Amino acid sequence: MAVVVLVAGVSCSGKTTLARRLATDLDAAYISIDDYYRPFASLSIDDRKRIDFDAPEAIDVDLLVDHVRLLKASETIHKPLYDAAAYARLQGTEPIYPNALVVIEGLFALHWTTLAGEASLRVFVETRLEACRDRRVARDVGTYGRTLEESLARYERNVAPSQERYVIPSRAMSDIVVRGDEPLEHSLQAVRAHLGWARTKVY
Asked: What pLDDT, in 10s, does the model give residues 69-104?
């Protein structure tokens, strides 16, 4: 049965960088929880922009947990794909094949007990909130083409309150806390050290 590693943290804490590198180094399957945003393509772009994508209700957690259980049962899944620039799920899916190690990352990776209960190792990436905010705004403007005003407004309206309510408290569910503002190699070494122990906790 596959070992599942969950990586959580606030927006732009460094969790995606850590999870992707871990999956690459260990030849693991990688899943971003962002791809499980509910489909909103039927709504206009203006209506989609008003959706709070920083609330756990925006994620189809039932589908996500079903997919995790299928991977643990050595079955292939067909993961949805999400386009952050368009605020919508894309047409088509991406196959994820069974693997001895599955790395899953996202804001709410440790928030849902149904998902956390499927994991053998739970990692929380902690970074100064001011640094995360600056990274988030730079990404929104530089990568997604959003205005500075739009990004800052969304941060204050949705991102910061959601982090305080859902993400930061989920730190208590973690087995290990690493720093997202320290060298990546430090975090990778700490997670790898815990993986040997985690492999004895396969559910």
From this structure: 999 999 999 999 998 878 788 889 999 999 999 999
Token look-up 């690493």 returns: 178
In the chain, where are the structural domains located? Answer: 3-189
Q: What is the pTM of this model?
A: 0.89
| Separation of alpha carbons 184 and 70, rounded Å | 31
C-alpha span between 97 and 155 (Å, rounded): 35
Q: Residues with Cβ < 8 Å from 192, sequence gap 6 or more?
A: 26
Reported CATH class of domain 3-189:
alpha beta
**Segments of 16-166 assigned E as strands:** 29-32, 77-83, 88-96, 101-105, 121-126
Whole-angstrom CA distances from 29 to 7, 57, 95, 132 are 13, 25, 10, 26
CA distance from start to end of the chain: 8
Is-contact 125 8, C-beta < 8 A?
yes
Hey, what are 155's tokens? Answer: 């941060």
